[in-house]
Amino acid sequence: xxxxxxxxxxxxxxxxxxxxxxxxxxxxxxxxxxxxxxxxxxxxxxxxxxxxxxxxxxxxxxxxxxxxxxxxxxxxxxxxxxxxxxxxxxxxxxxxxxxxxxxxxxxxxxxxxxxxxxxxxxxxxxxxxxxxxxxxxxxxxxxxxxxxxxxxxxxxxxxxxxxxxxxxxxxxxxxxxxxxxxxxxxxxxxxxxxxxxxxxxxxxxxxxxxxxxxxxxxxxxxxxxxxxxxxxxxxxxxxxxxxxxxxxxxxxxxxxxxxxxxxxxxxxxxxxxxxxxxxxxxxxxxxx
Amino acid sequence: xxxxxxxxxxxxxxxxxxxxxxxxxxxxxxxxxxxxxxxxxxxxxxxxxxxxxxxxxxxxxxxxxxxxxxxxxxxxxxxxxxxxxxxxxxxxxxxxxxxxxxxxxxxxxxxxxxxxxxxxxxxxxxxxxxxxxxxxxxxxxxxxxxxxxxxxxxxx
Lengths: 288, 156
Ligand SMILES: Cc1cc2nc3c(=O)[nH]c(=O)nc-3n(C[C@H](O)[C@H](O)[C@H](O)COP(=O)(O)OP(=O)(O)OC[C@H]3O[C@@H](n4cnc5c(N)ncnc54)[C@H](O)[C@@H]3O)c2cc1C
Ligand code: FES
Description:
The complex is a heterodimer. Chain A is an alpha/beta fold.
């Protein structure tokens, strides 16, 4: 199923994102892992947000509780949105507790997504760690929907353990495809896991791509992104062709409040997807 | 000196990333006491605590490196595939395996004789050095990966 290619630029709704949340209704809730659910929501009336591009995020408002930045994992032309939420605190717990028929507020889409057009003509390496897969999922579909425009496509997905993998059934479908190489790995596993075990960077030597002509999209916990980006750079991928998606606490999401500042960038306005070359000085990790 | 090793075995060892480009005489010497073996899924290639006298060059399949404790389930901490190796305990006293190695799927490997290889490398220091230049980075990489695992990079 290749339902969500990135919309051509001309099709993007030119309306600015709304300042007040638009009500959406929860259509379904899928349990992904013990602490993570996927919500499918659709507009409750005629108003809806513009169609998000791969890598953009929305502010989801749990009424009476608060708002959180959540990446768009899928967006249909009919206005349906898919978001995957991990419970970490007040708002995400409230969002993950929603049930079909409940209402949730949505404003967005915000931020700059994955520069898919820039990757055309070369190889693409996608590295996702844990909950980094949801924001990368629409990018993978966008690439697959214009498959002939790219060289080799390698996707590496890592999680802490098999029970932390999201979109398990979809991964199996991707793995069966012959035009994309999909590797999954976990940091540790029991004997009931027949896949690869090892941190996500251990799968990189197996990935086939031509480094100078490769664009990489990386999303996951910050240490994982830093180590992956460094491993890609060591392999010869130009640092300005390695893109990472940053997470910072957000309030306004429109570049006004400064809550999401990271180095010289406001993650909500200039990111969340940013070039590794620009971020590297701020992503210091002790040598391991 | 044992009989000349089968040319196929010499070729496969020479093509394995651990030995590729090393002195052909070292390759032939390693091959002279080596054998190729098939392991079924579930077979143990090494058992923690037992004498470690082999170095396995994986040609096909997948091997899980497992650690266990009596009071908790066995944990796979790494899988190893074609082009990779299992085992450095044959090189380091007290020559005992530090983990279990179990085939996760049907696996083909060249099993090198650890004591014989040690003896060859110590008799020919130039070969020994060249071999260590290949072998030490593998150990360093495993150590680094273990440290990354300890960082728990998926924790928020
Ligand atoms: C651009 C962007 C996209 C995001 N996409 C998703 C997504 O698709 N799915 C998802 O579940 N979450 C996503 N997040 C993270 C999500 O916004 C936060 O987890 C959420 O706002 C936490 O709110 P809370 O009230 O539940 O927790 P809080 O009560 O605010 O915090 C609980 C704990 O989580 C930590 N925390 C809070 N925010 C973050 C954060 N951004 N990163 C790391 N730790 C944090 C806090 O330090 C605290 O320890 C995204 C964040 C950004 C900036
Ligand atoms: S969240 Fe207010 S500036 Fe980014």
